[in-house]
Amino acid sequence: MKLSDLAARLDLKVYTGESRLGRSVGGGYAGDLLSDVMAHGRKDDLWVTIQVHPNIVAVAVLKELAGIVLTNGREPAAETVERAEKEGVPLLGTPFSAYELSGRLHGLGIKGE
Fold first, then answer.
1. In sequence order, what DSSP letters do the residues of the chain get, joined into one string?
2. Which of 61, 65, 69, 110 is most exposed, with the fewest beta carbons within 10 Å of its own?
């Protein structure tokens, strides 16, 4: 499924990366510990997290993730938005908890490991 389809179906707020919403999402990963995402996240995963600092963009680039979704209504730091725009990383947000969003993603066919 494409990131744009997920954004529309789940009413995700798009902070950055509108031009890259045509990217396919291959799976999902939910976690807030950066080292855990680096160890277990896979290329084309959609990362679900509460982290809002700029280092999440570096991890997304390193792991070639499809994008990042910030949960619980969290807003990204200004520097995070700037870095995501520069690196071309789709950064999205939702008021849902990570648990709720992960369940909805799973229901739409986005599986994790």
1. -BHHHHHHHTTPEEEE-GGGTTSBP-EEEE-S-HHHHHHH--TTEEEEES--STHHHHHHHHHT-SEEEE-TTPPPPHHHHHHHHHHT--EEE-SS-HHHHHHHHHHTT--B-
2. 61
Q: What letters, b where the CB count within 10 A reaches 16 and e where it falls short, cover 18-32?
A: eeebebebebbbbbe
Q: What pTM, to 2 d.p., does this model score?
A: 0.97
Which class would CATH give 3-107?
Answer: alpha beta
